[in-house]
Amino acid sequence: MLTNSTQKSALVTGASSQIGHFLVPRLQAAGFAITALSRHPPQNSTGINWQQADLLNFSFPITQAYLFHLAPLSLLPPSLNETSLKRIIAFSSTSCFSKSKSTDPKERAIAAQLIEAESVLSALDISWTVFRPTLIYGCGLDKNVSFIAQFIRRFGFFPILGEGKGLRQPVHADDLAQAAIQASLTTKAVNKAYNLSGGQTLSYDDMVNSIFQQLGKTPRLVKIPASIFKLLVHSLSWMPAFSHISTAMLDRMNQDLCFEHTEATQDFGYAPRAFKLTDVAHSGSKKWKYVL
Q: What's the fold here for domain 7-291?
């Protein structure tokens, strides 16, 4: 464990991401000196050194003791062994498991890329921890819960392929932020990878029903045959808001995507909250914010 206060300096990559939205203020509250990298840094942020940077062309000198890598794992900065880093906390995804046998070649490529990136990280001569979250939500920047909310608001219903009974464990981005700090300050999490799921397991249709209710709408789940559903996906794919969806993604509505987080609880006290939306608001940018 690093105890010297002068060593509590942190570099956060992907700091404008949904996890970064919660991690940066948590690090600040914990007494870290923070340098936050983002392609689109905020205009004003007291006490935080925001730097505009694109990790595809990384040239930023790393002098910090901690690296919280929230950007895609494949964009891990190069030559990390030559820096002053003592600790790396990085985020992968359970997609490395759930998409490895996808019918969509793009999704299989994503899974392979995650596995390769984890391998590169584990070979570093620096203490590391990898987190593999399940379905992340929390501040309107995700393409899962927020996408469902936006679809419901726009169309007044949500399409379900089959029964929509595949199990989900949505995890709040703030719980992941807290886990990152907890893991960084204990030797028990050194050189380990953890699956981090949410505190509640529910079926896909129950998750959608919950979002309907929090929007103040009566649930309208429309069960659609696979052939019609695939036609719907193709017809929406030209719209930027729906360009990320695929038929493989929709097939997973009926697959269980559950992962234990027991080891994380034992090693650093990980205790995720249940999926229960208590406040929903939207801004002019049509981004949804969920506050639990």
A: Rossmann fold (3.40.50)
pLDDT band, residue 243 (cuts 50/70/90): low
Domain ranges of the chain: 7-291
Q: How far apart are CA 44 and CA 284, in angstroms?
A: 20
Tokens of 85: 């880093």
**Bridge-based pairing state of the strands 66-69 and 136-137:** unpaired
- Distant-in-sequence, close-in-space partners of 82: CB < 8 Å, separation ≥ 6: none
Residue type, 104: D
Model confidence over 248-292: pLDDT tens digits? 766 777 889 999 999 999 999 999 999 876 443 333 333 434 333
